[in-house]
Amino acid sequence: MRPKKDEVEVRRFRLGRRREPDPRFHPREDSLDALMPPKRNNGGSPSGAGAHPLVTALLVVGALGWALAMLVHRGMLAWPPVRLLSSLATVAGCLALVGPVILARSGKAAGSLGELIWMTGGLLIWIFNLECVVRGDFRSIDWATPLGPRAMGLIILAVLLAGLRSGLAGRDWSWTNVTGWALGLFWVGLAFATWALASGSGPLAGLALR
After folding, report:
1. CA-CA distances (angstroms) from residue 19 to 22, 25, 29?
2. What's the per-residue H, E or C state across the chain?
C-alpha cells in the first residue's frame, strides 16, 4: 500500500527539520550572561578621574607659604619679604621665558589652561624685552621681570578668568599644566600682595609701582 500524500510530506518535514540543541548541553547566551560576573570599567568615570590641577598648584603654593611663615616666625626672614619676593619673581620670569619654547616643541594640538598661562607669561616677557631691544635701552632692561609684578599679575588674572569661563580648565595632570598653574597663582598672588602691602609707600612701594 502506498503511503498517503499527507504522510509523505510529514516525513519529509521531519527529516529536513534542523535538530534543536539540547539546552542541558548547549546553554543559551542569556543564561551565560547571567552566570558571568559584571565587567568592571578600568577607565573609571570622568568625574572621578582625580583632583583638578588647581588643587595641586594650591597645595604647592600653600606649602611654600607655610615655609615662609615659619621662616618669619623664627626670625630668619624679615617681613615683608621684599628681597625674597623679588628673587622669586626673577625665578618665575626666567622659567616663563623658556615656556613658549618648551610648549612649542611639545607638538600638542590643543593645550590646557595652565599651559596657556605659561605661554602667555612667557610671550609677554619676550615681547617687552624685544621692545626694549628695539629702542636700544639695554642698560635699564630687566630680562626676567620687564613688566613688574602688578601688571603681570593682573594680565595673568584676566587670562585665568577667561580660560575658566571658556572651559579650558580640564583634568590634565601633565607637568606643563601644573607648572603653568603654579606660575599663574604666584603672579596673581604677588600682584595682590604688592598692592595690599605697599599702599603707596613703604618697603614694597618700589616693587609694586614698577
Report:
1. 9, 14, 18
2. CCCCHHHHHHHHHHHHCCCCCCCCCCCCHHHHHHHCCCCCCCCCCHHHCCCCHHHHHHHHHHHHHHHHHHHHHCCCCCCCCHHHHHHHHHHHHHHHHCHHHHHHHHCCCCCCHHHHHHHHHHHHHHHHHHHHHHHCCCCCCCCCCCCCHHHHHHHHHHHHHHHHHCCCCCCCCCHHHHHHHHHHHHHHHHHHHHHHHHCCCCCCHHHHCC
- Checking if the pLDDT of 210 tops 60, the result is no
CB 134 within 8 A of CB 184: no
Average pLDDT over residues 176-202: 82
* pLDDT at residue 125, as a whole number: 94
Supply the mean pLDDT for the chain: 75
Contact 85, 193 (CB under 8 A): yes
The answer to whether residues 157 and 129 touch, using CB atoms and an 8 Å cutoff, is no
Residue type present at position 166? S
* 189 in Cβ contact with 61 (< 8 Å): yes
pLDDT at 94 over 60: yes
